[in-house]
Amino acid sequence: MKIAFSTISCPGYDAEQIARAVGDYGYDGVELYALEGERLTPDLLRDRFPELRKALAGTEIASINSWAALTSSLTPGGADPEAQVIAAMELAADLGCPMIKSFGGAFPDDHPAEAVIDHVAAAANRLADHGRRTGVRLVIETHDGFCLGRTLAAVLDQVPDDGWVNALWDVHHPYRMGEAVADTDALVGDRVRHVHVKDAVRAGDGWSFVRLGEGELPVESMIKLLAARGYDGYVSVDWEKMWHPEIEDPETVLPQYAEVLRTYLG
Question: Count of domains in the chain?
Answer without folding.
Answer: 1
